[in-house]
Amino acid sequence: MLTQRDAATVDPIRLPIAPLTVAIFGASGTAGDGVLKASLASPMIGKIYVITRRITSRMEEGLSSGKLELMQHRDYLDYSALIEKINNVDAVYWAIGISSLGADQKTYGMIHVDFPAQFLTELIRVSAKPDISFHFISSSDISEQSSTMWVREKIRAEKTLFSLAQNSNLRVLAYRPDYIGPTIDEAHLGQHLLYWFFKPVGAAVRATQIGQAMIDVTLRGSEFENGSKLSTGKIIAHSKAYEKTGSKFNSK
Fold first, then answer.
1. How many CB atoms lie within 10 A of CB 163?
2. Domains within the chain, CATH numbers bracketed
3. pLDDT digits over 196-218, tens only?
4. Which residue of 11, 35, 197, 233 has the smallest Cβ count within 10 Å?
């Protein structure tokens, strides 16, 4: 596993033998839109399943390209209608989440813990792949000793998902960014300003960079074990490594 010390200098990897098939949850949100944008642009991904309640212009672009298959879904505690169809995915990119502002603990916990836990339980049962990875967005600077509700729930999500994947063919990886800036084409002025405020101190990452990092980490396979956590610095490093790998692909 990579350490914090070498996170800034991640080498590009060898090009994949075959294009990846991925599933994206939460693609209508800020972070998920960036993950989808990176996935649509990636020559390393051949098929994208997007599971969503709401259709966005980015999804419509993907449909037009023929690379994306849209699956509208409403009950995130029941995946019986779709799980068999996506049992061939190499990776799942999970970006479902809500703000803690105004949210009660039951609702916040259901969305951040129960939703992905139920999906993982069903995916492990039906997955046709010998190795599959589940990538989800957590948060930076979270501690079990915190008195803040959302922090405790984020920790509970990590522990629950890591535990579910133990002794299975699935690895769970948590991405712990600080500030997430929307994609450049979706950000409003205030979000641009916040991004450039945090970026000089290494505390900001673009949503698209999270997507690029997820793809890079997926391609590295068992280099990352179940329970790995990637900070903002590691996310940026793997985004840069992904771009180097992509430049090799495009030069062929």
1. 13
2. 20-178+206-250 (3.40.50.720)
3. 667 877 788 999 999 999 999 99
4. 11
